[in-house]
Write a structure and sequence with these properties.
It is built from 19 helices and 13 strands. It is mostly helical. The protein is elongated, with a radius of gyration of 32 Å. The chain binds one RNA strand through strand 5, strand 8, helix 7, strand 13 and helix 12.
Amino acid sequence: MSKVRTRFAPSPTGRMHVGNLRTALYAYLVAKHEGGDFILRIEDTDQERLVEGAVDIIYRTLAATGLIHDEGPDKDKGVGPYVQSERQAQGIYLEYAKQLVEKGEAYYCFCDEERLAECKQVIGDKEISIYDKHCLSLSKEEVEANLAAGKPYVIRQNNPRTGTTTFVDELYGDITVDNAELDDMILIKSDGYPTYNFANVVDDHLMGITHVVRGNEYISSSPKYNRLYEAFGWEVPKYIHCPLITNEEHQKLSKRSGHSSYEDLIDQGFLTEAVVNFVALLGWSPENDNEIFSLEELVKEFDYHRISKSPAVFDITKLKWMNGEYMKAMDFDKFYEMALPYLKEYIKSDVDLKKIAKMVQTRIEIFPDIKDHVDFFDAVPEYDSAMYTHKKMKTNEESSLAVLKELLPVLEAQDDYSNDALYALLSGFAAEHEYKNGYVLWPVRTAVSGKQMTPGGATELMEILGKEESIKRIKAAIEKLSN
RNA sequence: GGUUCCUUGGUCAAGCGGUUAAGACGUCGCCCUCUCACGGCGAAAACAGCGGUUCGAUUCCGCUAGGAACUGCCA
């Protein structure tokens, strides 16, 4: 058994789509589970779709997610270059295409747009075109003459019209199609660049890729790739086609969903580890029912035979839950560091942000959730006094006013505003008056926060607010309730 | 339209001929509790339909329906 080699071969066209991220993850895991190599190859053969900076995004994303490649443009281990435009410049693809022409497996095509338009037909609302092998009949002399005249050309694969072609997918098994379905796809474009279809096969072979991990959308063109391998006499790699990731409407995840890329998710306050974990489980499940996996654990557990065949909906709600799990499990210092920018954005007053971070850590799923938890620290928001009425606490506006009035001098006399001291004070006060704790703590918490729910209890909040601010807020509440 | 693939609760999914059809998210209820959250316990919720094969089908086969992908000088 030779060493497993997989590759991730993205096009530098923008952000990292979550489908691509998962493909990269699976390719990485297939290799690493077997102690193999993971290779990065940049497929920039479409010069028109290139986006500046997109290659950097690819590098950054792989580094951030921990999908470290063993070989790539920046780490040549002898089968480079790892960027297709550079390989093109070396003439690699044209050379191999010519070999195919020699064998009669491919041919030059000089058809222009006008000629090609004749092959098009509209069925329903779709336009389809099947090339009619028009240029296959050109004699060698005619081809030479056209070439010499500098006529633009493409090189097409010459597929048979009869018989069938079968390829094997590790997950889907044997897939057979009629050769009549196989269009004579273009191998070399008129600008001299290879198409994905051709460059992929040539490079995967030249780079010694043993397992081709890619999206499901390539499954229908795989028979044509197989014919290429056979035409060259090359060994066909193992294919692993991953199921699609869809939106809630069961359609291809698009930019419009707002969370279609890894970078979108990070912008929205998700943690890299959670995104990787979540995406791993979209189309794959472990033998046990564990759901929280670090990348290292995934490497150990990942058996690609357990990848499922049906498409999976990207459920942002479950991702949020998972993110929350990572938030809670995170080392506090690290959490504090990451939460700080958010805390500072929503809290301008001089309070102990570390304490607030601690309160908030078990209550948020993504960082932006912090806002709703802390927006009362700077100032009590406008609120309805009806909030003082709480059935379970047996409180209402009148009882709250009475309690707060009674409590005010007690709180003014208190100097130790630590949570423990305050709690002892208030529960002592309640016991003394034969009140239930909630009967006094509910109005205090409401007075001090103006909110239905807060990241901590009344006394915890007062510890952070401090004596002066707490008293001020209680007084304001008495004022409000008195009107 | 053609080709190929897919089909277990709302979602992710286990299952690979005999099960009370796991587990998770979400939802709902209860407990804990100075609110909320965390945590604990529990509930509702699924084999697309129809035919075969079989002593026995969620599991195998076929058909139907639904969905998706491909059908580019994009990948």
